UniProtKB/TrEMBL annotation:
It comes from Symbiodinium pilosum (Dinoflagellate). This is DnaJ protein. Keywords: Signal. Residues 1-21 form the signal peptide. It comes from the Eukaryota.
Amino acid sequence: MPRSSRALVCLSLVAAGYVVTRLGAFVAAPATPKAPRTQLQARGGGEYDISDADIQTFYSSLLTGSGGDPPKGTVLSELVVKFFHGEFTPQGFKRYSGLWKGPPPGSIGKKDISVGVAGLKAQMANPMFVTKGGVGYGVDETQKVADDGKGWVWLAAEMSPGGLALELFKSVPYGKRALLVAKQSNVDELFNAVNWDVALANVEKTFGGPQIKQR
């Protein structure tokens, strides 16, 4: 083979080797992942935590009235009658089904509300049925507790298929509409000075959870 031909072959082989080497480097080089444009926020993050000081503040806000029974004709008085005027048995709550005493007779009045409040006080002092709560907002049901050991008993509302329903808690009712809270060992302290206007306003508020339109 002439010297010029051998030189051309050598140059061709060198060039081909260079291309293969660069191509291999390009293929083998790992792609550098792009940083995500936004980072997901950790769930919870303490945004809806309720401290002991928060509970005390909530309790103190309720002790700004003159006690007694909630006014007739309010959603709160009707809920108290609906869920506490009756008989609590191990099989469940048996709602009163007789004639309302009024006045006027046949409609819910002050006499019926007084019976409902008496039932509420008795159950807050010694609840037969307690809904699990506490721990934090949005936690799994298996993490909730029936009693957080802090000595408070809560009355909270939640929307159900049949409308607003009342439940008793012995742990913070995260994400519910907390209406009342009392010291279980001294519920009279609440009812002797409860401000029913404050309690009624709580119907529209979510406690320990994102604020949502309630009705």
